[in-house]
Design a protein that fits this description.
The longest helix has 15 residues. Helices cover 34% and strands 22% of the residues. The protein is an alpha/beta fold.
Length: 292
Amino acid sequence: MTDTVVISLERFGEKAAEIAKALDCDFELYDNGVFERSFGKYKNIVALMSAGIAVRGIAPFLNDKWTDPSVVVVSPGFDYAIPVLGGHHGGNNIAKRLECLLGFNPVITTATETHGLPSVEGIAEKKNLEILNKDSTRKVNSAILDNEIPFFEITGPAMVAVTPRVSVLMEKGEYIVGIGCRKGVLKEEITGAVMLAFSEVGICEDDVFVYSTTRIKRNEPGLLEAINDLDGNLVFVDDDSINREKPVSASRASDKLGLSGVAESSALALSRRKEIIMKKHVYGRVTVAIVR
């Protein structure tokens, strides 16, 4: 299975099969359940039908821009490829590929691209990086339209403090490791707990995208030293982002810190897939959860 599907009304089936062959992707004829089946299964949807049919079809399944597939409508005249969803997340690229492969006219509406400028999402894709603080992209992309925005590349170990107007791009890894700990915890307790969690799940340090915790712990020496020893990157997640998540394990953080949790919630806040690989485990004075 590929990450792209062409969905077509039956009357356009022959042309849709040609598009699917050019893109080397799957092909399905339109029916009442086709968009529901395709959401969560594919990263990109090419819809050969009117924009109205496509928009009404996808509307009930929209969640957010970071998890929804891109949707590109190909006009019934077979001349335009129009990203109506997820232009920065694959849609624009699909439209441009259809231009190269089949001569369609791409109708690009994202502001940065229409002005010939890069976007945060485009830079991340080109450099194979993950956008860590996704909410920042709207402000940064808006700033790109007005100014030349600098791009800094930092090799670690390092610590970086940024404002919401700075997008942080990191090398991709699969897992986010959430950590909670008692005040005064030793670095050996942290590293020991993390390594035990790794052994239980069957992963290693190289598989980790980032470590996470609450920003309340930003001055916890043992935690900082442990992540440095693990050659990792630690993100201090703000309270609002943590409290938007719903951990599966009960947490005393709700009473003590006013948070829905620390280990699970901070990791979920940074996760795209929201898939808990290991629920919160308690190792002495340390809690660890693993998410992807």
